[in-house]
Design brief:
With 164 residues, this protein is mainly β. It is built from 2 helices and 12 strands; from the N terminus they run ββαβββββββαβββ. Strand 10 and strand 11 form a beta hairpin.
Length: 164
């Protein structure tokens, strides 16, 4: 279980070590290092997802560990409230960035081994604070340099911690 204290409120989530062990281990390594503390939700698309974990305020990219293997699987779906790893078009490029699904996003689910069907690894579920997630999903966004869908006012992850 983790707690994400944000500038908009608190989000609690359980992590699925049984479905995505390497992904959860990677995520918790960043949590334990304090990596996420002070980062922002830098990409917000109402009706889709909120993404964070890679940038400090001012869209300053943070250095990360090496990418991990994509553990997307049919058993872990990208449903409303699930946490999933963000990545580039390279299937195995996820590092620290993650997103929280605002709606059921079945098109992101693993449905095959091809690049088009591999999907995004869901590795946890919000258990408290979906109202906070929804509130973040409604913030006003604009552009920041080459980036779109960036909140006009920073939505900061003040701290991300393990809880019992």
């Amino acid at each position: 279980m983790i707690t994400i204290e944000t500038s908009e409120g608190t989000i609690k989530a359980e992590l699925w070590a049984d479905k995505a062990p390497g992904t959860v281990e990677n995520f918790l390594k960043y949590v334990d290092e304090g990596f996420y503390d002070g980062t922002i939700f830098h990409r917000v698309i109402d009706g889709f997802m909120i993404q964070g974990g890679g940038y400090s305020p001012g869209m300053q990219k943070k250095d990360t560990h090496a990418p991990i293997k994509n553990e997307a699987c049919a058993a872990a779906k990208n449903m409303r409230g699930t946490l999933a790893m963000a990545r580039t078009s390279d299937l195995h490029s996820a590092t620290a960035q993650f997103f929280i699904n605002l709606v059921d996003n079945g098109f992101l689910d693993h449905s095959g081994e091809s690049a088009a069907d591999f999907g995004y690894c869901a590795f946890g579920q919000v258990v408290d604070g979906m109202d906070v997630v929804d509130r973040i999903g409604k913030v006003k966004t604009g552009t920041s340099g080459p980036y779109g869908d960036v909140p006009v006012e920073d939505v900061v992850m003040l701290s991300v911690k393990r809880v019992e």
